[in-house]
Structures are given as structure tokens and as C-alpha cells.
Design goal:
By secondary structure, the protein is an alpha+beta fold. Helices cover about 65% and strands about 10% of the residues. The chain has helices at about 15-25, 30-40, 50-55, 70-75, 115-125, 140-145, 155-165, 170-200, 205-255, 260-265, 265-305, 310-345; strands at about 60-65, 80-85, 90-95, 100-105, 110-115, 130-140. The chain has a 6-stranded antiparallel sheet with strand order 1-6-2-3-4-5, with helices on both faces. A hairpin with a 3-residue loop joins β2 (about 80-85) and β3. α1 (about 15-25) crosses α2 and α8 (about 170-200) runs antiparallel to α9.
């Protein structure tokens, strides 16, 4: 079973995020907003005492201990536990390797990580070669606490996204019409090239060759025109979506109480604006590129299989290898983005 992981929203949310991770591990789901309120998160983050009080309210038996690496490594602490790093950052230690050399961490800023002994000790131990550990043990009260949560949160988010792009459905229909037009014209090119060789050159029919070449020129002109139209529609749609997202964000932001701004860094708010740009790019650029690439691969695979069926097997293998490499690169890019996101928020 994979250990839970949760990425913190703001720079100072590592404390309540750790409580959310451990509570999810034990089978209880709490919203981050509720845990932030319990932990009394401020601009300086969460203190050990505030997090201890919050954990006790959730039904944990809490023990805050300053210990050495030897004590932690000798199975003297219940896992998972919360580790306080020297960078004023909380992480969840959920397992120690059999050889006692690897430590498995759920970091709210990055995700699931594996540290060796040296790296972990450099991040955790202070000048006295000791570090803080917050041990959490669920009590019977933990299982009896029932908190009303929004069970339809995901459905609400999907509904908000649908409502966001619904006013621009005509533009999206136009974009995909141009995409299918370009793909259809691309499909004709191999057949025209075959006709030039098999029928035009073999029969020495110059008029047929000229006619096919003119058809290819017309196809190129059609592709260029369709791409220009698609770019114009995409530009208008992306501009309108960006304005809609930013205005909705500012509308909600201005409705928040003063206490929100007292506990939130400016970098966190700026990052939300950047996230709006990323959302717009996904809908107007990334999504279209995924559709175009996937359909192109499917169409050319069919064409290739029609002429050389035995070549489809290595083509499929290369495609799977490419997709595996692509997903690995995307996961690494996402991991690096999460790190840079936290650093940019802290500025």
C-alpha cells in the first residue's frame, strides 16, 4: 500500500499538511482549511506547541521528543511521525529501511522521498546532534470524531471547470474542427505521394503528376490556413479565459476576511495568479497538443499498418518507450516545479 502524500498549498502549510497525511494514513480525512485553523497558522508558520494542541484535538496521544539519530534508528519511536527539519519545515517519516540506511519521507513540499542517513541527519540534527520528533498515536477518541466534510468537493471542482470553459464551447469546437481538418489533409499526403510514383512516373503521365503536385500545394495551403485560423481562435479564447479566471480569482480574494491576509504571504497570492496562467495554458494549448499528437500517432499507425503490417510491432514498441520516457520526464518536471513553487512563494 502506497503511503499517502499531500502537497501543501502555501509556504507555511507544512505543519497542517503533515497532520493531514498522517490522519489519512489512519483512515480519517480532514480538509487543510480545518487543520490550518486548528494549528493557528501564521505568517511564521506553525509552532510545535500549536501543532501538538491541534493533534490532541484530533484525538492523538502526542509526544514531542528531542532525540539523537541512534535513538530514532533503534525503533524507539512509533511511525509514522513528524520530523522538524532545521529549515523550519515539517515532514512525515513513515518508514526506515531494513538496513537502517534509508529513510522514507512524505514531504508536503515535494512528495514521497527517500533520504540516506547522511542527508537526513544534515537536514534534521542541530549542533547538539539531536532533533525534534513529534510522535502521534491515535486514541479511541480519534476514531470517534466525525467531522462534516464536503464529500462532493471533486464534483464541485469539475463543475467549476466545466462552467469555466462552457462559455467558450464554440471557440473550442472551432479549434477541434481545424485540428481534424489538418489531420485529414495530413492523411492524404502519403497517398498522393504514392500516386505520383505508382501512377504518374510509372505511366509517364506528366499531366497526372502536375495535377497531383497541384493537389499537394493546395493541401499545404489548406493546412497553413487551418493552422492560422486555429491560432487566431486559440488566442482569443485564451485571452478571454485568462480574464475570466483572474477576475473570478480577484472577486473571491477581495471577499476574504482581513485575517486571511494577516496569515498569508504575498508570494502565496502571486503564485495563485501564476496558477491561473497555467490553467489557461492547459486548456488552450496543452490539451489541444495532446489530442493532435495522439490522433496523429493513431492515424499514421493505421497507414503504416496498411502498407507494412510487420513494421507496426517495432513502431508500437518505440511508441511505448517514448511514452514511458515522456511520463518520466513529466514526473521529474512536476517534482522540480513543486520545489521551485515553494521557493518562489517564500520570497
Amino acid at each position: 500500500m502506497k503511503f499517502p502524500s499531500f502537497i501543501q498549498y502555501n509556504t507555511k502549510d507544512c505543519g497542517p499538511s503533515c497532520l493531514k497525511i498522517i490522519s489519512k494514513y489512519y483512515g480519517q480525512e480532514y480538509s487543510l482549511a480545518y487543520l490550518r485553523e486548528l494549528c493557528q497558522v501564521s505568517r511564521d508558520g506553525t509552532s510545535i506547541s500549536s501543532m501538538r494542541d491541534a493533534a490532541e484535538k484530533l484525538g492523538y496521544d502526542v509526544s514531542v521528543t528531542k532525540m539523537s539519530w541512534k535513538t530514532l534508528n533503534n525503533d524507539n519511536i512509533k511511525l509514522p511521525c513528524i520530523i522538524h527539519l532545521r529549515q523550519n519545515h515539517f515532514v512525515v517519516l513513515y518508514s526506515i529501511g531494513v538496513d537502517k540506511k534509508k529513510l522514507f519521507i512524505s514531504d508536503p513540499a515535494i512528495g514521497l522521498l527517500t533520504y540516506d542517513e547522511g542527508t537526513f541527519c544534515n537536514l534534521w540534527l542541530d549542533d547538539s546532534n539531536c532533533g525534534l520528533v513529534v510522535s502521534l498515536k491515535p486514541t479511541p477518541r480519534f476514531w470517534s470524531i466525525t467531522l462534516k466534510t464536503n464529500s462532493n468537493a471533486k464534483q464541485t471542482q469539475i463543475k467549476e471547470i466545466v462552467n469555466l470553459i462552457k462559455p467558450y464551447k464554440i471557440q473550442f469546437i472551432g479549434i477541434f474542427i481545424t485540428v481534424f481538418t489538418v489531420l485529414g489533409l495530413n492523411t492524404l499526403m502519403p497517398y498522393l505521394a504514392q500516386s505520383v510514383v505508382d501512377k504518374g512516373i510509372e505511366s509517364k503521365d506528366i499531366s497526372l503528376i502536375v495535377l497531383i503536385l497541384l493537389a499537394q500545394v493546395m493541401i499545404v495551403v489548406g493546412q497553413t490556413s487551418a493552422n492560422i485560423i486555429r491560432n487566431i481562435i486559440t488566442l482569443k479564447a485564451s485571452t478571454n479565459i485568462t480574464i475570466n479566471i483572474i477576475s473570478s480569482f480577484l472577486h473571491k480574494l477581495l471577499k476574504l476576511p482581513i485575517s486571511f491576509f494577516e496569515t498569508t504571504l504575498i508570494g502565496d497570492i502571486i503564485q495563485r495568479v501564476r496558477d491561473c496562467d497555467r490553467l489557461q495554458v492547459f486548456f488552450t494549448t496543452t490539451l489541444v497538443s495532446i489530442v493532435v499528437s495522439s490522433l496523429s500517432v493513431a492515424i499514421y499507425a493505421v497507414v503504416l499498418g496498411k502498407y507494412m503490417c510487420f513494421h507496426c510491432i517495432p513502431f508500437g514498441q518505440y511508441y511505448l518507450l517514448f511514452m514511458d520516457t515522456l511520463f518520466f520526464a513529466l514526473s521529474e518536471k512536476t517534482r522540480l516545479f513543486k520545489i521551485s513553487r515553494i521557493f518562489s512563494q517564500s520570497k
